Amino acid sequence: DSEESVSEQLGYEITGIESGSGVVNASIDATETYDNLAGWEVTPTSSGAMATALGDAIENEEPIIVTGWTPHWKFAKYDLKYLKDPEGVYGEEEVIKTMVREGLEGDQPEAYQVLDNFNWTVEDMNAVMLDVSDGAEPADAAADWVAENEEKVSEWTDGVEAVDGESLKLVYVEWDSEVASTNVVATVLRDLGYEVEITPVDNSFMWQAVAEGEADGMVAAWLPATHGSQFEEYGDQMVDLGANLEGAKIGAVVPEYMDIDSLEDLEP
Length: 268
Ligand code: PBE
What we know:
This protein is α/β, with parallel strands linked by helices. It contains twelve helices and nine strands. Strand 1 (about 15), helix 2 (about 20-35) and strand 2 (about 40-45) form a beta-alpha-beta unit. Bound molecules: 1,1-dimethyl-prolinium. 1,1-dimethyl-prolinium binds next to helix 2 and helix 10.
């Protein structure tokens, strides 16, 4: 009832995504850093379940706090805001980097070149994500985007020769943003003649697989903060191909209608 505080209505719960995600770990960190969040829980779910819970809450104008990130289609569909984080547990604006296994450059120079060249914008990624959130198959959404953005894609493949059925393995996590980027890169590599296998795994295995050479690469390294601990553990066992997107961010996200602006506004 309306006598309840926002914190009571939320059940002292932040709706998470896949456990092991940087934004889930940062949110757990927030519950340990902010005194007013002592005793709060971060519920691990999945990116899809988080989006459904957010949509349902908005439909009923109920309070909800989700582990959020940019780029993500939810900001185009709903009026949302990041809660202020005066302690900085979620870090600053960051980049998404491409990481490949050691030895890829010599073994598969064409794929290496394309992965090295791959870079796009928040707006580009949003276009693919929105299409998928509206029901398109990720591979179709990626193919449409590639077809509509020939000029940009030709910069990634400039001077790269086609291959004949060589195989390549990319790993990713089924976060909406990485579903989009991984499918776009796979589409471009397939158009060059690669047989590309894209395998969804969990965050920690994504890093391990590239470090151990079980996968050839990934385009999903959020740095310096979100995947800082994975980078520390595995970063020196792989090749850092630099940023493929700038302007990424994570944080605690709520609907605009909620009457709080900061993590510190939540009643204990
Ligand atoms: N994310 C999207 C990931 C990185 C990409 C912010 C949900 C995370 O590890 O939190």
